[in-house]
Amino acid sequence: MSILAKLLTESEVYGPEYRGGLANHLPMALVALDQMGATPGQLNEYRRTHVSWLEPLPAGEVAPAGAWPFRKADHAAFADLQADFRQRISRAGWETVLRALLPELAPGLSAAAFHGLIRTAMGVVSRHEGEIAAGLAYWAAHWQRLGVVLGAPAEAAPSADPAQLLERLRNDPRFVFDPKKAPDLIDDALLAVGALGGFGEVIHWLDPAACRIADLARAAGALYGATGDFTALHTVTGTHAAAVLVPYVQEPAVLLPWLWQACAAAYVAIGRPAIPEASRIEAWRTIETPAWPEILKCALAEEDEHAVKLCYSALFLSRLTGDRMFRWLAAREVGALKSIGLPAWRR
User: What's the pLDDT tens digit per position in 306-329?
Assistant: First the structure.
């Protein structure tokens, strides 16, 4: 058993959240660190310094039989769903279980501010069955639908360009939203956006047959690059997670419209900031940054779990898209761009 597998297994005693709704990032961060080249000593030290605030799962019997799908969207059902998914994986294998569940889970992929999706994907990256079961259980227990899905709107044809669609959202008066009045937790803010009149149409704005996961990744990266916003960060790590899971669905359209919907809700939730122009994004690509090995060395020394995950997501999406913007994002995240400084949420 690898040190990563050992640490993930040991971490299964902790609940998926702590302090009333904050996500347990430890397993996800450990996988990200491992993928960026962390040594066994670094992984052990990170766990030692990041476990003290987590809350153990309550003791007691679990009732896995029939937990899924009957207890979907029941926050109290995590342990039962986890046990159910463990049994299914033991019988059929994690790939079979994943392929069966993703179509039903996808409409609620904003669950727990994308963290059910992300934790599932990190379980897949690590090939750790217990972590896959935990990720799926977290996703299922916090499953949430953003608005009522209506018929496709007639006023405009769907587009394959997510950046263009964000601009359309920005100019639509129906989606005025004051971030200062939003709930504190990201998933609650997304639900508040989903309740806005007309938001049910937004999922149909994207043409899933023409759009690629790389297109959504670039749009999320550009949004985070322009704002440095904490919620926008989750659209990058969430898109990375969806890219990991796309091979396990019959076609990308199973995931991509729901990913677009969740990213759109996140964009509205942060106040619909201006989308960076192509010239500004190109300038990011041409700024001199350290090479990836140096950036990753800095990332491995990061204490903040979100910064660790963002750097790994940037590395993955850089490889997926070939877009140097993601290297710029990672360099900024670790403070390697002295003239720019850290992203806004870290200042």
Answer: 999 999 999 999 999 999 999 999
